[in-house]
TrEMBL record:
Matching SUPFAM superfamilies: F-box domain, RNI-like
Source organism (scientific name): Rhynchospora breviuscula
Pro residues: compositionally biased ranges: 12-23
Limits of the F-box domain: 26-77
Family matches, as PROSITE patterns: FBOX
Domain of life of the native organism: Eukaryota
Protein name per its UniProtKB record: F-box domain-containing protein
Annotated spans, Disordered: 1-23
């Protein structure tokens, strides 16, 4: 045996962590007035605000009088154990779900201050009345109701909620309005979101302050008629193909946002909206859309042809509706859409054009060179080229048809400032140089034109105006 002894491996002693000295002196935060402490607590997550009650007798009841902002969905995620965080709420298989509902009920029941924001999705329609009554009594500002009953039952809104003077935002899903509405409801409501909620015919006329309306997954009735003196923004999602959207009287409507499939599945009529500035999405394969006395529709005898032929009927109208549109969004389903020039011709004062492309794969399409040029020339004079300032293309793969379209806009856009291309694939310097050369950026009509490439992601802010429509 070797007499050499193995050296023991010794670990270095742990470095002591200095403990900061406890500050001496009075508790300055607790000396602040209640109104300031209530404002601070209202900004904290509700569970953190409740935990401050153990600090001292001074803080024991402060959270009960602070403005309450409770979203039981995020409360659910924040309070569950990690292993239960992604489980579907089930009161039978998951006892934690019952604890969550008890916790939310206790917080609202013990709270004495105003309830500013309340989002409920853990409760059945039978238990909603307690929360709605408490919220209305304390001056609710923002309310969201999603009954937890998997669509078997709907929740009928109480009349006390319809008469709330403080409510500014209301979001409803699987709810219904009473059959007999009050002469005036929601006097100060600014935003209303309806998901799978039947829209009473006289609802909008009784909401005198409503500015934003979102309608989605509506299945009842052959048509939805919109008449509102105060409405400024309308967002329209629809799954049924039998429902027609008719905007009869909306003198202050500025923005009409349609789901990218809405103009294929549904007929849309805008009869009176003289201040309309933002319109989209108009699908290039549009079924029928009427703007004033201008009708854009497919020929009935060519519904099955690829690409379909279009009829654009332009007649004098009593209002300057199409000239008011400054921002337009178009959805292209195929590589080449011959209806694009016909649609753009209807908007002579267009300044911003957003194009969402098909789900392509980057392969070159069979398109004869100059095909776009021929389609544009058939339309005659296109006055929108004298006003167009920005173009955004979402889903730019660099196909030949994309290049041909952009080349025409670059060569003829007299005041064009920026063309933003959102590419679904990795962008290289070689790709950018090739596309700039193919688009003929050196022959641009506007000396201030800039061609910008971005990697397309869901969080991309350059298409933010229509993000709700794209990712709904």
């Amino acid at each position: 045996m070797s007499s050499r002894k193995r050296k023991r491996e010794t670990k270095p002693p742990p470095v002591p962590v200095p403990v900061p000295p406890r500050p001496d002196g009075p508790d300055l935060i607790s000396q602040l007035p209640d109104c300031i402490l209530h404002s601070i607590l209202s900004l904290l997550p509700i569970m953190n605000a409740v935990r401050t009650s153990v600090l001292s007798s001074r803080w024991r009841h402060l959270w009960k009088d602070a403005p309450l902002r409770l979203n039981d969905y995020f409360f659910n995620l924040d309070t569950r154990p990690p292993h239960d965080r992604y489980l579907v709420p089930d009161p039978v298989r998951n006892p934690w779900f019952n604890w969550l509902r008890w916790a939310v009920f206790s917080i609202v029941n013990l709270h004495h201050g105003p309830i500013e924001i309340l989002h409920l999705s853990l409760f059945t329609p039978a238990t909603m009345d307690f929360f709605v009554k408490k919220a209305v009594q304390t001056g609710i500002l923002q309310l969201k109701l999603v009954p937890f009953d998997f669509g078997r039952h709907t929740y009928e809104l109480p009349l006390s909620l319809l008469g709330s003077n403080t409510l500014h935002q209301l979001s409803l899903r699987r709810c219904r309005f009473p059959q007999a509405l009050l002469p005036s409801i929601f006097p100060n409501l600014r935003e209303l979101r309806l998901d799978s909620v039947p829209l009473p015919h006289d609802l909008l006329s009784k909401c005198g302050s409503l500015e934003t309306l979102l309608i989605s997954t509506y299945y009842e009735g052959p048509s939805i008629s919109i008449s509102s003196q105060s409405l400024r923004k309308l967002v329209f999602h629809l799954a049924s193909s039998r429902t027609e959207l008719i905007i009869k009287d909306a003198p202050n409507l500025e923005s009409l946002m349609l789901a990218d499939k809405a103009t294929i599945r549904n007929k849309v009529k805008v009869l009176d909206a003289p201040k309309l500035q933002r319109l989209g999405f108009i699908n290039a394969n549009v079924r029928a859309i009427q703007l004033g006395n201008t009708l854009i529709e497919r020929h009935k005898e060519s519904l099955r042809s690829l690409p379909p032929t279009f009829l654009v009927n332009v007649t004098p109208c009593r209002m300057n509706l199409l000239s008011s549109v400054k921002t337009l969004a178009i959805k292209m389903e195929q590589y080449f859409e011959e209806s694009i020039p016909s649609i753009l011709k209807c908007f002579p004062c267009l300044e911003n054009l957003d194009i969402m492309k098909y789900e392509g794969n980057g392969d070159e399409c069979c398109l004869n060179e100059g095909m776009w040029e021929e389609q544009w020339e058939e339309q005659g004079s296109l006055s929108f080229l004298d006003h167009l300032k920005t173009v955004i293309v979402k889903g730019f793969w660099g196909d030949q048809c994309d290049v041909e379209l952009l080349r025409y806009l670059v060569v003829h856009g007299k005041v064009l400032r920026t063309i933003t291309l959102l590419c679904p694939k990795h962008i290289t310097k070689k790709f950018v140089d090739i596309k700039k050369r193919q688009i003929c950026i050196e022959n641009r009509a506007s000396s201030n034109l800039a061609l910008v490439f971005f990697r397309d992601t869901k969080e991309n802010v350059h298409f933010s105006l229509w993000n709700d429509m794209i990712y709904y």
